Amino acid sequence: MIRKAKKYSGPITVVLLILALVVGIGTFMRHVQELRSEVENAFKSRNELVQKFIDLQRDRVSVMSNLMADKYAANQMVSGVTFEFHAYPELNVWELTTRSLSTAGTVSGNAHLPLSDDASKELHAAFSLDPQINAALKFDSDIAWIYYQSANNFIYLAPHASIHKFHFTPQVYKQRYWLESLPDVNKERRMILAGPYKDEGGKGWIITFAEPVYYRDTFLGITALDLRVDTLNKLIGVGHATGETMMISENHRLMAKEYGFDSEEFLRPPLSSNAIDWHKDKNSDMWLSSPVVKDELWLAHRVTSGELYRAAARESMATWLMILMLGMVTALGWKLKSALEEVTRITHIDPLTQALNRRGFYEQLEASLALARRNKLSVAVLIMDIDFFKKINDSYGHAVGDSVLKQLGIYLLAAKRPFDLVCRWGGEEFVVVMLLDKDNQAINAAERMRQEAQRTKIDVADKTINMSGGLVIMQAHEDIDKTISRADLLLYQAKENGRNRIVADDVLLATSCIIDKA
Questions:
Q1: Which domains are assigned to the chain?
Q2: Distances in Å between the alpha carbon of 84 and those of 72, 81, 113?
């Protein structure tokens, strides 16, 4: 028996070694595939995050461009504004200030003074962008600059910058974003992407999104937004993945990189429109890629063959540890994603009613107003609150009051149409913005919202609530705060006239319209 054992021990050892080798190779290959999948998932998440971020900035530029053109076409001067020009002969430039208007940025130029009527009209239109510029700068620290650059030899730059630190010079007309925006080059009037380049104002490396502004067929200038490359470098490195992620422009220039950004680096990877298709370059490096801006900007991820196999070998040495770590990384990734989604949600949504809060309302409002202008829609603004809400709190407690508000939010959101906005304005007050084909639809639409809202119950008392409201039509060139103030005055009239009704303004009816109690 001993001899037989010795006789077969050799082959058994070989078989075991082969099995071990097969298992080792199988584990190694499995880890290779798992690492590829991990990279794919991380890249898709980064691509989605970058896409949303870039789309947000491009939308801001487009909104400003549209507003600039609309304000210029409307030829409405900012009321009560007087300009004061301060000359700086040593800089061959002037700076504009105004005592009657607090502007978001600085205006400088060397256009001949006094300004022509067209240039003055253009300057007033540029000042009308202040609400959008202030909102963008307040809530997004990733923006380096926002500006309007005119073909009439001036620039409106925000935030404020010292005239000695940055001011208008003819050199701005030699920048790529300007040259590629000109009518003979950019016949399609598309948005231009330029950079990266060193910011003259000292904010490091930046890239620029610029969109031409036209009045009919006359080229006025550009609206533009500069993003910090440092922000993009951090954004494309969210999470963990073997290899490195980068952004590449249409001319193969490196725009941002997870590690070791070099503004002079050019890359020609095999680009794809599918984020999970792997392609090899001539060095056998493997690439994933996806367009961020069609035909202009790509997100790409490179993994060298050596990186992938070394990582797989390390993982194979401790399979179970790897599984545990991957589980932890995945859980952390989901937790981070959930946290980011929650942070984004709570900054725009009232947690009790799920309606927009004021920040979310103002951020979405401009897009709604732009849609209304493009489609020539009426904008109806309704402000409502609950009749005797304090009595509900005093009689049944704040928990019941919160329950009422929560139900009210559900009914209002269910009743709104896709392009309506519902905002909890404060306490038990709600503002509803409705886009309508005609003014005369407003009363029926508002009453429908009120009737839906009044389905809300005080559960402990088995009673429904009553609501009062004020309804107005937003006037041309009227800002939303003034419109809401008008609606608020009508809400007070509804209260004084017995509550449980909506009072509409004279634009809708020849006299105040009071909807009596059911």
A1: 2-56+232-346 (no CATH), 69-227 (3.30.450.20), 358-514 (3.30.70.270)
A2: 21, 10, 11
